[in-house]
Structures are given as structure tokens and as C-alpha cells.
Amino acid sequence: MKTRTSAAVLALMLSVALALGPSAASMASAASEPFITVTVRQGDSLATYATLYGVSGSALVAANHLANAQIILPGQVLTIPVVQTFTPSLTTPFYYVPQSGDTLSGIAARFSMDYFTIAAANGITNSLLIAGKTYLIPAGPHVHTVARNENLMTIAARYGVSLSFLQTANPGVSNPAQLFVGQRIFIPIIYDAAPVPLGGAAPAPTVAPVTPTATVSATPPPVATGSFITVTVRSGESFVTYTSRYGVDGGAIRAANPQIKNVDLIYPGQVLTIPVIATFTPSRTTPFFYTIVAGDTASGIAAKFEMTTGVLLGANPGASIITGRVLLVPPGPHSYTVQRGDELRTIAPRFATTVSALLTANPSITNPELIYTGQQLFIPLQYNAAPLPFGP
């Protein structure tokens, strides 16, 4: 576990390092480098820093000798037990100074991360980068785009996690040995991780900039309430696109489209049936349609339905936020903010899942009885689920 850099702690780490061997000694040496410090702002909690820096709440409490993890005050200076570095890592945060020609979407693609994850970590609201300014690249989560010859085992090794860790985070992957080029694999934040350098990683594919306020709106999919959803295939889309967008597995989509003989071959302009009933009734487990009203923003709609802006806009390629337009709200994954009085056993039924599944999806929670107000929980996407209306 990472600890603060006091002389006593360093002495203890060095003595343990000598007892345990070279690997422990190198950890103690790394701890002698400056740790990140932050000044608490209004509304911040330990959960704020846990997700930004990939550090568990218990490590933050230990590093700052906090008597009460629920109470931190604006202006208070906290030590984040993570070494300050400009060396890119797949598992730990680092700093980055934009170079000529850099864009936010390009940086996100380079570091296998959602555009909005980096924007949120740096308070960016207009996608503009300032030359020479230092930006934080958070610890995760990552979104890995599958390249040729990759499978779940090789991706797990790249991020230094187990195969079961990735399988839990990506329940739509039925065969870990068979992935599709272009498929997106979700890599949850790995808390209290050792750095894993980017070296040797396959180059990230080029990703078009995301423009939440674009003035050109995509044509919304047919919305005939009570019937199955139909989609017209767009360039670059595959069955995998629709499994994550609509929360149905590839087998269900294939069964609903017997005219498709080869699931790897679909073409722009083809019309497919998605075996999900079209509805405007909000559901936590199945997709639904939402009509934009005056004053709506992409981030506001996403927050209303407990998901990230990136997830919402990813399900609506090319869409813009214009009053009267129809958006598809995907079935997940969800990002739930813990409220006062919440417990895992009360949160799990809201999403038709189990406490065990939540613990697996949120490995930073070591005690199911101890979660914090403001803490962000990752709720994985569920496939072929029954509708579950939003409610308390």
C-alpha cells in the first residue's frame, strides 16, 4: 500500500525492503520521489481523489492520518500517495503537456481513454487545450479498442490485470479468445496499482473529435413505440456496436436477423432489427428514447440517467443537443454517485444486480459495509435484461 513520505515511514519501508528483497527496495526508492498534493475544493470528497488518482479510500486515509474519512474541509492540503510523473502509464495517473497539433480527442485515443474522462479530470468544458499548460491524465477508466490478433488474455496482460477482472467488466464478451477488431473493452480503474508503461502497446486508432454541441444532428432511429427497434447500419459499425448500445448479445441480434448469414459482414445501408421494444419509459437496464427539452445539456441528461456523458453520446453518433430531437439512452454502463444513507445492499436492487457483482466491479471497496457519500460506483452493462424503471 502507498503511504506518506515522512521520515519514519520511509525508514520503515526501507527496513521492510531490505527484508523482502530488491522489488520491495525499488518501491521504497520510488516513494522517495515527490507525491502529488491537492488542495481540497468545495464539494470535494475522498471519492473525488480516489477516481482521479486511482487510490483507494483506505490509502488516502492512511497517507493523511484522517480521523474521519467523511470530513475534509476546503483549503485543506492532502497528500495523494502517487508519485508525480510525466511518464505515461496505463494504470496510474500522470501529467501531460500538449504538443503542437494535439487535440483532446487525439490525446484520449493515444492513452486509450474516453474523451470526457480527461475533460472532467481537468475541468475542460469547451475541448480547447492551452499550449504549455500541464494536464492530468487520470488513472482510468480506460476504453481499449481491439486491434488485429488481440484477445481478452493479451489485453489483460497489457494492463496487468486478470482475465476474470476483464470478463466481469465486459459481460458481453462470451468468448475471451474471440474479439472483433474495433470492439471496445472497458478497463475499470485499478486502485493502488503499480505503474504499467505504455511501451510496446499497439498504436491507438485515430478517433474523430467528439463535439457535444455540434449543430448537425444525426437522423434519429425509427421510434415506433411498442415495436422492435430497427437501425440502419452506418460505416464502421458491427454487431458489437449494437450489443453495447442496446444491451443485447450478438446471439439475440443474429436470431432477430436471419437474413444475415455472416455476423462479421454487415454493410452500410442494411436495416437490422434490434430485439428490444422501443419505448420512452426510462429504464435502468434497457435502452429507451428521450426527447430533448429546452435547457437540456448532454451532461445534464447523462447525470439524470446515471451515466457518463461519453456513454450517452457514444450511443448517439453525430447527434447534437437540440430541443425536440430524440436521443437514445443506452442501458449502461451506469455511474452511480453514493448518497447519504446508501448501502451496497440497497443500491444493488435498483440496478437488478447483486452486492457480490458490485464488489467485483468496484475492487476499491474492501468493506461492503463502508461506502462514502459522493463515491462513484461502476454498474456494468447487463445484457438481455428485463426493464427496470427508475425509482428511489
What can you see in these coordinates?
By secondary structure, the chain is α+β, with helices and mostly antiparallel strands. The chain folds into four domains: 7-82, LysM domain (Membrane-bound Lytic Murein Transglycosylase D, Chain A); 85-209, LysM domain (Membrane-bound Lytic Murein Transglycosylase D, Chain A, Roll), CATH 3.10.350.10; 228-329, Membrane-bound Lytic Murein Transglycosylase D, Chain A, CATH 3.10.350; 337-379, LysM domain (Membrane-bound Lytic Murein Transglycosylase D, Chain A, Roll), CATH 3.10.350.10. Helices cover 28% and strands 14% of the residues. It has 14 helices and twelve strands. The strands form six sheets. The chain has a two-stranded antiparallel ribbon. The protein has a two-stranded antiparallel sheet with strand order 3-4. It has a two-stranded antiparallel sheet with strand order 5-6. Helix 5 (104-110) packs across helix 6 and helix 7 (152-159) crosses helix 8 (163-169). The chain starts with 6 loop residues before the first helix and ends in a 13-residue tail after the last strand.
- Alpha carbon gap, first and last residue: 36 Å
- State the name of the first-level CATH class of the largest domain: Alpha Beta
Question: What percent of the residues sit in helical stretches (DSSP H or I)?
Answer: 25-40%
- Proportion of residues in extended strands: 5-15%
Structural class: alpha+beta
Per CATH, which architecture of the largest domain?
Roll
Point out poorly predicted stretches: 1-32, 200-222
Order of helices and strands: HHEHHEEHHEEHHEEHHEEHHEEHHE
Instruction: Give the number of domains.
Output: 4
Largest sheet report: 2 strands, antiparallel
What is the number of helical segments per DSSP (H or I, 4+ residues)? 14
Number of strand elements: 12
Rounded radius of gyration (Å):
22 Å
Shape: globular
